[in-house]
Design brief:
about 20% strand, Rossmann fold, globular, alpha/beta, about 290 residues
Length: about 290
């Protein structure tokens, strides 16, 4: 089965109930194994591939997630869009725990992860001015709202390294920048999805107020998991609705991101790199 839409499940979302024709598929990539086996099937009539980004059993930390392998795997399975669900902390009073944010911008605070396919003899510069797909984000917002969530459309997601949570000084700094939520995974996925010419959008599930809000207790794993358990069913309903609403003929620039991005002379690209990146590059190198 060819998957059309990839789904990345984050903390608390390790499976996708309701998949018809369920099949597990292990994918080999030049970047090592993905986080887990992909689960293929049909959801609301749409072919999908589900992957638990932290692995089943939550055994992979944010800094250790094989981001390139995960995105590469979705591409080789025929996906043209990736929907993400992930836990985040709120940096704004109005973004309360159990609310959903569908961000449209990111700030990168990571420092020790591979976040590009283009290295080792090939260089490409994709545009990341608008890092998520507006068409797919709109569908995700509408679907989360129809599933009963309080949805905040737009906002800036700070992607920190982790796995420890923020210091209070960091949390207040990000608030002074006007950021909305903070998490540890999504920007890396957005960058790689853009390089792979797949649409990317994320449903950020607010679990806590980070540590800036003195009126509440500091963020803890127990509090995060309690909110996630309450939100898991809503997130699954939202994703099910979203995959049915995504237009395969949507108009966006995501699936044409590499048209002018590769700057390396094709004759200079090493054969091994050319072969490894064939699913990503398609026919871009002549």
């Amino acid at each position: 089965m060819t998957a059309r839409i990839g789904i990345l499940g984050g903390s608390g979302l390790y499976d996708m109930p309701g998949l018809a024709g369920r099949e597990e598929r292990t994918v080999a990539t030049p970047f090592g194994p993905p986080s887990d086996a992909y689960v293929l099937g049909e959801l609301a009539g749409a072919p999908v591939a589900f992957l638990a980004r932290h692995g089943r059993g939550h055994r992979i930390s944010p800094s250790e997630i094989p981001y390139r392998a995960n995105v590469y795997g979705f591409k080789t399975l025929g996906c043209d869009a990736v929907l993400s669900a992930s836990a985040v902390g709120s940096l704004r009073e109005e973004l309360a725990p159990s609310h959903v944010c569908v961000p449209d911008q990111f700030i990168d605070r990571t420092r020790s992860r591979a976040d590009t396919f283009f290295r080792d003899g090939i260089v490409a510069h994709v545009s990341l001015a608008d890092p998520v797909c507006p068409a797919v984000s709109a569908v995700l917002s509408e679907s989360a709202r129809s599933a009963g969530a309080v949805v905040h459309e737009g906002g800036t997601y700070v992607c920190m390294e982790g796995p420890p949570f923020s210091t209070r000084a960091e949390s207040n700094l990000y608030r002074s920048w006007g950021a909305s939520v903070i998490g540890m995974t999504n920007l890396t996925e957005a960058k790689l999805s853009r390089e792979a010419e797949m649409c990317y959008a994320t449903m950020a599930l607010v679990t806590d107020y980070d540590c800036w809000r003195e009126a509440t207790e500091d963020v803890s794993v127990e509090a995060v998991l309690a909110v996630l358990r309450g939100n898991a069913e809503m997130a699954q309903r939202a994703l099910r609705a979203a995959v049915a609403r995504i237009d395969p003929a949507r108009r966006c620039g995501c699936r044409d991101a590499l048209r002018y991005a590769v700057v390396t002379d094709p004759a200079r690209v090493p054969e091994r790199v050319r072969a490894d990146l064939a699913p990503i590059l398609g026919g871009r190198l002549r």
